[in-house]
Specification:
The protein has about 190 residues and is an alpha+beta fold. The protein has helices at about 1-80, 95-110, 125-145, 170-175, and strands spanning about 80-85, 110-120, 155-160, 180-185. Helices cover about 60% and strands about 15% of the residues. A 4-stranded mixed β-sheet has the order 1-4-2-3.
Length: about 190
């Protein structure tokens, strides 16, 4: 009997080992399948996050641009022109507070630049008025720089007598056309 018992025990041991081995393989395949599913899920999640981050970044950029545009519109409505005497590009006393307001607005509005347009009245040649308009725009620019606005945020252009705000040929109208006008734009444009 002991031989039978030993044979049975041996067979039982082999069966158990084979069974354990078999169940280990099954568990291992199941683990591999689970691992593959988890990796796929992680990859999908990662892609989704990447897309969400891209969308979020794009939305933030759009939101920031919209906010900057809103701020520019608000500030632009508050901007006033500075005026010059006939045949002059000197900053007048009444222009100084206006330029200080422009500088204060630019100080608060990061990401905003200003284009300073120089304008003249209708008297004189086009060439003369383009040069005078340029000098007026540069005078306003220099004043703003003296108030601490970096030159990189200030551009100038002269329109001479080409863009009048008033077209009557009298001194009141001429005085309105001798000006520096401020146009706010988003930096990077």
């Amino acid at each position: 009997m002991s031989r039978k018992y030993m044979l049975c025990a041996a067979l039982l041991s082999v069966a158990m080992i084979a069974g354990c081995s078999q169940s280990h393989k099954v568990a291992s395949q199941a683990d591999q399948a689970d691992l593959a599913k988890q990796q796929q899920s992680d990859a999908d999640t990662s892609r989704s996050r990447g897309q969400a981050e891209s969308i979020t970044e794009r939305d933030m950029t759009s939101a920031q641009q919209a906010e900057t545009q809103r701020m520019i519109r608000e500030l632009q409505q508050k901007m006033r022109d500075v005026y010059f005497d006939y045949d002059s590009f000197s900053i007048r006393e009444d222009a100084r507070p206006v330029l200080k307001d422009v500088a204060a607005a630019l100080g608060k509005a990061r990401g905003v630049k200003v284009v300073i347009e120089g304008h003249c009245d209708e008297r004189g040649t086009s060439e003369y008025n383009l040069a005078l308009g340029e000098k007026r725009a540069h005078a306003a620019r220099e004043y703003l720089m003296a108030l601490g606005i970096p030159s990189s945020r200030l551009e100038t252009i002269s329109y001479g007598k080409e863009k009048p705000v008033c077209t009557t040929s009298d001194e009141t109208c001429h005085a309105k056309n001798r000006r520096a006008h401020f146009v706010l734009i988003e930096e990077g444009r």
